[in-house]
Amino acid sequence: MKIEQNISLKPYHSFGCQVAASYFTRITEAAAIPKCIEWSKANHTPLLFIGGGSNLLFTKKVNALVAKVEISGIKKIEETATQVILSVGAGENWHYFVSYCVQKSWGGIENLSLIPGTVGASPIQNIGAYGVEVQEVIDSVTAYDIKEEKWVELKNKDCAFEYRNSIFKKEKGRYIIAAVNFILQKQPKLRTDYGAIRDALHEKGIKHPNLESMANVIIQIRSSKLPNPKQLGNAGSFFKNPSISKEYFEALKEKFPSIVAYPITDTTYKVAAGWLIESCEWKGIRKGNVGCYDKQALVLVNYGEATGQEIFDFSEEIIQSVYLKFGILLEREVNII
Ligand SMILES: Cc1cc2nc3c(=O)[nH]c(=O)nc-3n(C[C@H](O)[C@H](O)[C@H](O)COP(=O)(O)OP(=O)(O)OC[C@H]3O[C@@H](n4cnc5c(N)ncnc54)[C@H](O)[C@@H]3O)c2cc1C
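^ thats the input. predicted complex w/ flavin-adenine dinucleotide below
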C-alpha cells in the first residue's frame, strides 16, 4: 500500500476546490481495505473512502487518510433465460457500467445513464434519476464491516434503501463497499413514464424505444440541463427534494398555486426543491466564485476558485431563504466533509 502525504484533492472531486489531504492512497483490490483500516488505527488517523468524488464538498483540509477506491472488474455470476447477475468492482465507473449493460442488451439501469461516480458509491445514496432508483436492480452489496471487523454480504433488504438514503449513509463510515451485485433483465420493461423522456422520444420520432435509444435520450436530456463537472465544478443536485405532510402541501398550494410536488403516500408529498429555490429567485445568481446554475436551480457551481466553505455558505443562504418563504428546511444531498 503506497501512502502519499499532503496531496491536493482538487483532481479527485467534481467541485474542483483546492484542498489538501494529509494522507492519500489508492485501493485497487478488496484485500487492501482491511490493511488501510489497520494503518489508520496504528497511526491514529481517521479514514475517508472516496470513489469519483462527485457527491462530496470539502470545506477544510482533510486531516485523514483519503482512500480512493479503484477496484475494477465486471463478472457474470449467473445467467438464466430472463436475467443476468453481475458482480461489479466498486471502483468501476458508473456510466461505463451502464453503457456496458446497454451494449449487452441487459436492462434496468439505462435511465441512470451519465450519472458521474463509481459503482461502489451507487448504493450509498441509492442513486436515482428519471423514475428509477438503483435499489431496484441491486441483489446484494459486498462490504467490509469496520464495526464487526469482517467481510459481509448485505442482501437488498438489509441495505435499508430509501430516497437518496441507505444503511451505508445512516451508519456512515461503517461499511466499505468492495463490490455491488446487480440483477439485470434480458427482456426489460422500459421506463418511459417520466415527462421529459416521453417528450424527447416524441421529438425524435421514436415510437418503439430500445435500451440504446433510451440511454441516448437520457444522455441528451442530462447534457442539456446539467453542467459538465470538467468545465464547471459541481456535484449535481445539491439539495434533496423535501417531503411534507398532505395538509401542509394543501396549505402551500393555496398560497402558491404553481408549487411543483407529487404525492408519495396517502399522507405525504415530495416537493421539487428546484422549484422552491427558483421561487426564491436564486436561479442564475452568482456571488463571487459560487453560483446557482442558470439551467437547473438545484445545482450549485464553482466558477473557478471557490473554496468548499464559500460553497457551503452559499448553500446556507439558500436554505435560510427557502425556509423563510415556505417554512421548509432543505436538506443537503451532497456529503459535507
Ligand atoms: C453532474 C452531476 C450529476 C449528478 N446526477 C445525479 C443523479 O441524477 N442522481 C443521483 O442520485 N446522483 C447524482 N449525482 C451525484 C453523484 O454522481 C452520485 O452520488 C454518485 O453515486 C457518487 O459517486 P462517487 O463515486 O463520486 O462517490 P463519492 O462522491 O466519492 O462519495 C460519496 C459518498 O460515498 C462514500 N463512498 C464512496 N465510495 C465508497 C465505497 N466504496 N465504500 C464506502 N463508502 C464509499 C464517500 O465517503 C462519500 O460519503 C450527480 C453528480 C454530478 C456531479
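DSSP finds eight helices and 20 strands in the chain.
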